[in-house]
């Protein structure tokens, strides 16, 4: 199995449907590595511990992280299953960015950003990253998020272990549309 396919399977197992692979995440989203390796075999992914370590280390967005003792693995963000990552609120920069598709912009400006099936709204520290996130959904559009003003209003922000900014939702008054960099 290619690394990209394996990364997608790990995202599926560790963010969305652990039950489908016969896995149970603990409250903080961790799964024992030995259980994971056994479960992966049922999905034609017979990989060794060192192969798993290599996939985690080389992952383009550093999506997964081992516990300090190396016995457990979890996804650093993006969950639809309920987990408590134990992230502490952090002061965000004045501006953050959200990448989406142009077809969602009117609805987002009317209703605000909602987490959908995930636990948080995902925000990017720069325009280029937001544009890449938006492109996954179609023609990209970028929204500027007044994160500093939200923070001053008492809305908490978190940063995942792999640098993604997270917050519960973004009300419309903190959003402003931007043109993508490539236009
Ligand atoms: C949109 C990837 C209409 C929202 C990325 C987005 C990210 C609304 C879509 C991570 C809306 C949800 C998450 C509203 C939000 N009306 N549409 N009121 N509010 N939306 O995939 O942020 O590769 O759940 O704009 O890099 O695209 O998986 O969220 O387009 O960090 O590691 O609803 O996934 O990381 O889509 O992506 P998603 P996202 P990974």
UniProtKB/TrEMBL annotation:
<dbReference type="GO" id="GO:0006388">
    <property type="term" value="P:tRNA splicing, via endonucleolytic cleavage and ligation"/>
</dbReference>
<keyword id="KW-0520">NAD</keyword>
<dbReference type="GO" id="GO:0000215">
    <property type="term" value="F:tRNA 2'-phosphotransferase activity"/>
</dbReference>
<comment type="similarity">
    <text>Belongs to the KptA/TPT1 family.</text>
</comment>
<dbReference type="InterPro" id="IPR042080">
    <property type="entry name" value="RNA_2'-PTrans_N"/>
</dbReference>
<dbReference type="Pfam" id="PF01885">
    <property type="entry name" value="PTS_2-RNA"/>
</dbReference>
<dbReference type="GO" id="GO:0003950">
    <property type="term" value="F:NAD+ poly-ADP-ribosyltransferase activity"/>
</dbReference>
<protein>
    <recommendedName>
        <fullName>Probable RNA 2'-phosphotransferase</fullName>
        <ecNumber>2.7.1.-</ecNumber>
    </recommendedName>
</protein>
<keyword id="KW-0808">Transferase</keyword>
<dbReference type="InterPro" id="IPR002745">
    <property type="entry name" value="Ptrans_KptA/Tpt1"/>
</dbReference>
<dbReference type="InterPro" id="IPR042081">
    <property type="entry name" value="RNA_2'-PTrans_C"/>
</dbReference>
<dbReference type="InterPro" id="IPR022928">
    <property type="entry name" value="RNA_2'-PTrans_KptA"/>
</dbReference>
<comment type="function">
    <text>Removes the 2'-phosphate from RNA via an intermediate in which the phosphate is ADP-ribosylated by NAD followed by a presumed transesterification to release the RNA and generate ADP-ribose 1''-2''-cyclic phosphate (APPR&gt;P). May function as an ADP-ribosylase.</text>
</comment>
């Amino acid at each position: 199995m290619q690394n990209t396919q394996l990364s997608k399977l790990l995202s599926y197992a560790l963010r969305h449907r652990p039950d489908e692979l016969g896995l149970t995440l603990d409250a903080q989203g961790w799964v024992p590595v030995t259980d994971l390796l056994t479960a992966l075999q049922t999905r034609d992914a017979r990989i060794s511990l060192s192969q798993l370590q290599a996939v985690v280390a080389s992952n383009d967005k550093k999506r997964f992280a081992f516990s300090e003792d190396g016995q457990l693995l979890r996804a650093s963000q993006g969950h639809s299953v309920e987990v408590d990552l134990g992230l502490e609120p952090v002061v965000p920069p004045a501006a953050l960015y959200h990448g989406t598709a142009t077809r969602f912009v009117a609805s987002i400006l009317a209703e605000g950003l909602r987490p959908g099936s995930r636990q948080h709204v995902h925000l990017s520290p720069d325009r280029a990253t937001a544009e890449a996130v938006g492109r996954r959904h179609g023609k990209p559009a970028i929204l500027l998020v007044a994160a500093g003003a939200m923070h001053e209003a008492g809305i908490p922000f978190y940063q995942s272990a792999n640098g993604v900014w997270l917050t519960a939702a973004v009300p419309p008054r903190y959003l402003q549309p931007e043109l993508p960099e490539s236009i």
